[in-house]
Amino acid sequence: MQPQIDLATQLFEYNRYANVRILGACAAIDAASLDSNQAALLTEIRNLAEHIVGSESYYASTAMDAEMFETRPQWEAMTLPELVEMAEVTGAKLVEVAKTAELSAPRKRERAGEETFHFYSWTVLVQAIHHGVEHRTQIKALLTQLGVPHQEGSGWEFSVDSTT
Predict the structure, then answer these.
(1) How many CA atoms does the CB half-sphere of 73 hold within 13 Å?
(2) In CATH, what number is assigned to the domain containing residue 99?
(3) Structural domains of the chain, count
(4) What are the tens digits of pLDDT across the range 120-155?
(5) What sign results for the dihedral spanned by CA atoms 73, 78, 82, 85?
(6) Model's pTM, two decimal places?
(7) Inter-axis angle of helices 80-100 and 7-27, nearest 10
(8) What is the distance between the alpha carbons of residues 8 and 101, in angstroms, rounded to a whole number?
(9) CB-based contacts of 20: which residues, under 8 Å, 6+ apart?
(10) Fewer CB within 10 Å: N-end or C-end of the chain?
(11) pLDDT digit string, tens, across residues 85-128
């Protein structure tokens, strides 16, 4: 008999894996060897990396209805290798949330001057997966423009890497 697999957990293990892989490829770029046009692409990559990691922190906090960090990390001050480390942290937190959150729990977000937004914990997790795929795809396109080799971070690669 095959062991049971928790699909939500696997999706977020994959999400963490894919983020760390693509951001790791970015962190390995030798910035000094880039010309000015390429440097602009690297800046865009860095901004996307910051956005991915910061958003994952937000998603985990929102799904848990509790802040992930005592004080907001200064994502914009982090280097790419530091953002890779934080992708491990935020990714692990999303895995934990996928395992433990009551996914049907109603949530709400209130922001000054805006209508209250009502949703469920599962909504945040679906958005986190969508968001990660969207921005990893943008980063891969920029890496391709730079001529930087990178793996796709596909579900197939994740399956092979996680079983070896």
Answers:
(1) 23
(2) 1.20.120.450
(3) 1
(4) 888 999 999 999 999 999 999 999 988 888 888 888
(5) positive
(6) 0.89
(7) 180
(8) 11
(9) 84, 87, 88, 91
(10) N
(11) 999 999 999 999 999 888 888 888 887 788 888 888 889 999 99
